[in-house]
């Protein structure tokens, strides 16, 4: 039993000197649970994104938000020093109805072609919010 705990700990903790970026989606209370699951067309969804630079140097980031592959919002530029954290409320507004729409949060690091990607699945109901 003790061996399993040690192996899990070793795998979960990065090696000293390893370069990486932490990237999280949180609800508006700062928890990794209870994300928006259903919105109406035109209703603004909100989550908190957290980015922590563990790259051992200054890094420029940008975030793109897409709903079913279509750009919906963007945040840039974000310049973070090693160990610095950025946390902010990020909005997205669906414009078409449909179940299981993929809301993607794509984190681009300057100089890299492939982003880190996080996503939520949200059902979008007919009818505008103010109808």
In short:
This protein is mostly beta strands and 131 residues long. Helix content is 8%, strand content 56%.
What can you tell me about this protein's structure?
This protein has 131 residues and is mainly β. It has one helix at 2-12, and strands spanning 20-26, 38-41, 45-54, 59-67, 70-80, 85-92, 98-109, 116-128. The protein has a single domain (19-128), classed as Sandwich (Immunoglobulin-like). Strand 7 (98-109) and strand 8 form a beta hairpin. The longest helix has 11 residues, at 2-12. It is elongated and about 50 Å long.
Using only CA atoms, what is the Rg?
17 Å
User: SSE order in H/E notation?
Assistant: HEEEEEEEE
State mean pLDDT (0 to 100 scale): 88
By CATH's scheme, which homologous superfamily applies? Answer: Immunoglobulins
Characterize the biggest β-sheet: 5 strands, mixed
Give the percentage of residues in beta strands: over 45%
What name does the CATH topology carry? Immunoglobulin-like
What does the oligomeric state look like here?
Answer: single chain
Rounded to the nearest angstrom, the distance between the terminal CA atoms is 58 Å
Q: Which stretches of 5+ consecutive residues score pLDDT under 50? A: 1-12
Q: How many discrete structural domains? A: 1
What is the CATH architecture assignment? Answer: Sandwich
* Residue share in helix: under 10%
Number of strands: 8
Strands across the major sheet, in which order?
2-8-7-4-5
Shape: elongated
